[in-house]
Amino acid sequence: MLKMVYNSMGNINAQMCKLDITGNNVVNANTAGYKRQSVDFIDFLNQKVLQDDEAVRDSRGRGTVTALTDRRLDQGIINYTGRQLDLGIAGKGFFQVTREDGAVFYTRDGSFHIDNQGRIINQQGFVLIDEELPENYDDIVIDEKGNISCTDEDGNKIEIGQIEMAVFPNPTLLDAVGDNLYTAGELIEDPQLSVPGEDGAGIIRQGHLENSNVDLVMEMKNMIEAQRSIQFDGKIIQTADYLWNSANNLQK
Asked: Which of 101, 131, 140, 239 qualifies as a FRET site for 162, CA 20 to 30 Å off?
């Protein structure tokens, strides 16, 4: 009966992890460029026990544990917004933004703004490119290759610079650090910086934003499955407790 309790507790912990991840996906269903997470489980069919100073296999199970959480990087739907500094990526690349202290982050969220220095920044104030727009600029144009241009106060066209895209060989290993940002951890190679439209980076769609790739129907299904599993294991623990109580009463 003790083994029943341990197995059920392990499964409850795993399903609680699934609920947390599913809830985070649901909350970010309307976050631009958000990539949903999933969780994978493994069953501990056997465990090692010590018998006569030697580790041998015991056939008793140990329940379910969380094996890993994975980031699903499927392309989200790109919707038209009409805003000049909304940029959607149609492809596998990431925007590379730099914090004031030089730290580099990566994101698929293409909602940018202009700061008081004329730089293009994201919502956290991290810089997309170093070049600054002139004073009294107008009509910012960003083409599919990431080339940025605008018109000055005299109506002259000015070339500002070009956005480069970061392409990773295995982007699922990126570390999420919050605010829809990622960093390249120790397990991932440095990205290849590419011109949009080359090396699989994808093209930039000005006036568009990429939706999250969260499927709310799937997330609700996952949530119901996890809740039902937790209820089932709770019943197992209650049954084990009832059997213990019955056994103790028999001894009396």
From this structure: 101
Please give the chain's pLDDT, 252 residues, in tens: 666 676 777 788 888 888 999 999 999 999 999 999 988 766 655 555 545 555 454 544 556 666 567 888 899 999 999 999 999 999 999 999 999 999 999 999 999 999 999 999 999 999 999 899 988 888 899 999 999 999 988 888 999 999 999 999 888 888 889 899 999 877 777 888 999 998 889 999 999 999 999 999 999 999 998 889 888 888 887 887 777 777 777 755
Q: Return the C-alpha torsion angle 9, 12, 17, 18, nearest 10.
A: 150
Report helix, strand or coil for 78: strand
From the list 70, 80, 76, 82, the residue with the least C-alpha distance to 107 is 76
Strands (E), the chain: 37-44, 47-51, 54-58, 63-71, 78-80, 87-90, 94-98, 104-107, 113-114, 120-121, 138-142, 147-151, 157-162, 165-167, 175-178, 181-183, 192-194, 203-206, 208-210
Beta-strand ranges (E) seen in 72-218 are 78-80, 87-90, 94-98, 104-107, 113-114, 120-121, 138-142, 147-151, 157-162, 165-167, 175-178, 181-183, 192-194, 203-206, 208-210
Quote the pTM value: 0.80
Collapse the DSSP code of 162 into the 3-class scheme (helix H, G, I; strand E, B; otherwise coil) and give the result: strand
Beta strand 165-167 with 192-194: parallel, antiparallel or unpaired?
antiparallel
